[in-house]
Design brief:
The chain is an alpha/beta fold. It has one domain: Alpha-Beta Complex (2-enoyl-CoA Hydratase, Chain A, domain 1), CATH 3.90.226.10. Strand 1 and strand 2 form a beta hairpin. The radius of gyration is 20 Å and the shape is globular.
Length: about 375
């Protein structure tokens, strides 16, 4: 079955089992996910979960530039401007359902996280049971720049990073590399990008799959570890590990305005990475900063399912308010990089406005993701 945005195949192995391959196939958009893409991916995952002949699922992106740059923001923007006001919420709910399904999937899922892995793409990578990054991997949750927040389970995995690294990455939208992904437990294995064809097209098909989920998970883990062993020292050093103390210092505060001042005005001008983070934060959406802050506080003791349900509520309201389409306009449509946010600064955002984003538009019994 082929769609412009997704290629779905089943490939034979040397035994009686097959592999389910799902390839995001819109390289012109850096394999961004639309509602339609998410629907096709959910359908494929559901079908393969019930098929006893499918031993493993492989998720990758087409082209050499990206696994997935996140949601198809231009498609969302067009929908909002054409007064299809429910499209953003429908998209978020479907995307979150796919990621929730991946985290609980009954079979191993191998995700090849090569190239750009941003936003929803990082959510997909995080949801896989076996996650590969390469020397070309560039990962980020840059939603503060478009009036959103790190979603698709982002609040959950950012909150489980060492110290306050997750909060820092969310507020600054900074990109990080394969070494960081391994340190932050967003990836499991490092392989060179040039190994992709050998691994995905040849070695996986030659394994002795059993059709038993736990045995196949172990088989895949051992195989990937063996294939990655020669390249163990090739991954770049984890900047977030090396700069751990500095990141802790910049995020050490009891209130968001305190931390905002440290990120914006701290002694960071001599370091390009931190300077870029300060710039991203200064240009980012003030309301998004508050949503990131509140989510980091509220989700500390939540399960993944609870986090995804809460993110669905916050995202619903983001899709209905002005900052989100304005952020997309400034970043991707007009590309003037001069968003006109509804609030001038972090200090100017009314507490009530933030609280409104956490008010569920559905009762618990009616929540669209209640069955996750």
């Amino acid at each position: 079955m082929r769609d412009r945005s997704l290629l779905i195949e089943e490939r034979a192995t040397k035994g009686e089992f097959r592999l389910g391959h799902a390839t995001l196939s819109n390289p012109a958009s850096l394999n961004a996910i639309s509602l339609e893409t998410a629907e096709l991916l959910e359908e494929a995952l559901s079908t393969w979960a019930k098929d006893p002949q499918i031993a493993c699922v492989v998720l990758s992106g087409s082209g050499e530039r990206a696994f997935c740059a996140g949601g198809d923001l231009q498609r969302i923007y067009r929908a909002i401007r054409s007064e299809d006001a429910s499209y953003p919420s429908r998209f978020f709910l479907k995307e979150y359902r796919v990621v929730g399904k991946m985290h609980a999937y009954p079979k191993p899922i191998l995700c090849w996280g090569d190239g750009i892995v941003y936003g929803g793409g990082l959510g997909l990578l995080a949801g896989a049971s076996h996650r590969v990054v390469t020397e070309k991997s560039s990962l980020a949750m840059p939603e503060i720049s478009i009036g959103l927040f790190p979603d698709v389970g982002g609040s959950w995995f950012l909150g489980r990073m060492p110290g306050r690294i997750g909060l820092f990455l969310a507020l600054t939208g900074l990109a990080f590399t394969a070494g960081d992904a391994l340190f932050l437990k967003l990836a499991d294995y490092f392989l060179p990008a040039e190994e992709r064809m050998a691994v995905l097209d040849e070695r996986l098909a030659s394994l002795s799959w059993t059709g038993q989920a736990e045995s196949d998970r172990l088989l895949l883990s051992r195989s990937l570890r063996e294939w990655a062993r020669p390249w163990r020292s090739a991954a770049s050093p984890a900047r977030t590990r090396l700069e751990f103390d500095r990141i802790q210092s910049l995020t050490d505060g009891d209130t968001l305005p305190e931390i905002a001042d440290k990120i914006a005005y701290g002694p960071i001008s001599t370091d390009a990475w931190f300077a870029q983070g300060a710039e991203n934060f200064a240009e980012g959406c003030p309301l998004s900063a508050w949503l990131i802050w509140e989510l980091s506080r509220r989700t500390v003791r939540m399960s993944l399912k609870e986090v995804i349900r809460l993110e669905a509520i916050v995202a619903h309201w983001c899709g209905a308010r002005a900052d989100f389409p304005e952020g997309i306009r400034a970043r991707l449509i007009d590309k003037d990089r001069k968003p006109r946010w509804s609030d001038q600064s972090v200090a100017a955002v009314p507490a009530q406005k933030v609280a409104e984003h956490f008010a569920a538009p559905w009762s618990p019994e009616e929540h669209p993701l209640r069955d996750l």
